[in-house]
Fold:
Amino acid sequence: MKIIEFGKDGGSSKSTARDRPERMKILEFGDGVRGARPPSGSKIEVRPASTAPQAETKWEPVPAPASSAGLAAVPKTKASRSPFVGSRSLKMHVLDLGKLRLDKNFMVANSTVAMAKNPNPPGKLIDIPVSAYYIEHPDGNVLFDTGCHPDWAGPNGRWPQNLQDVFPVIGPDDCYLPHRLEAMGIGPNQIRHVVLSHLHCDHAGCIEFFRKSNIVVHEDEFAAAATHYAKRDHSTPYALRDVETWIRLDLNWREVGRAEPDRNLVDGVKLLNLGAGHSFGMLGMMVSLRDHANVILASDACYTAENYGPPMKPAGISYDSIGAARTIQRIRSMAEANHAEVWFGHDIPQFESLRKASEGWYE
Ligand SMILES: [Zn+2]
Ligand SMILES: [Zn+2]
Structure:
């Protein structure tokens, strides 16, 4: 793990490492354990299938950073590249992590259009589901996405005020990921891989609880979150106080490179490198099930069935709209080739129709 530290005064984002070499500090850790960078071209070892999960620990909250002003160290990450074959007996649990209340135009662009005969149409406020997927697997349990941080709200909340206003979370106190997994008797150390579809605040809010897991993220997404953090740019869906906490904890990041092919994370669970579209670097997952159609977890690469079409409809939030359209085409081709269902990121009727973890699972 290499940490580059700069701008210790927490001041201007114009202060770069090159401008102020005296402020740059590089730390190298090469102990071959957590967060270590392997020699170039080497493969990171994945524990064998027989490795028992580590003892369960409690869900430890992390105190919120005092402010985002003192943002300092940005860790660089490295990809894990170790596909391996194991058992295909897996169970997928659908976790209901509450809802976001927002204007429908964010989901489907131009849902509300003013016209001469209707110059001020009312906006449409909708409650969209927030979800995560827990896969019990003999070769290591996998979590796809983590929802919002429980302390997202308030003046000292993780989210900046603009996000709190535009996308408030609607849900009971127990709708957040730690509560949901705890109710299933699962501790954070029982999750081997935490796959982040991307790092927006409604998907990456609970990363910090998984201090022993591999945190799998697209390299371009990690770079984007780190860049917004370094610039103190609070205008995006990255919650910089969440980012600050990840950095302080030195988590066990595993990047997926831009050019890396799709590959099995564990047998029956394929990591999909979806690239730029909704955000800078999207990951999806395809899960092979014995008693159900295969499932593609699309996350925000496709918000809803309405976006999926055909015809496709663009989302209201897109980093790369052409990439987003291409990604939906690619997901459609994969779904057809693999007889897979596509589970969208925030589709209200589809999510209501799914069996939730409190009711059972998919296998
Ligand atoms: Zn998003
Ligand atoms: Zn989302």
Q: What stands out?
A: Residues 198, 200, 237, 278-279, 300 surround zinc ion (ligand 1) (CB under 6 Å). The helical segments are 104-107, 161-166, 177-183, 219-230, 240-249, 305-308, 321-337, 348-353.
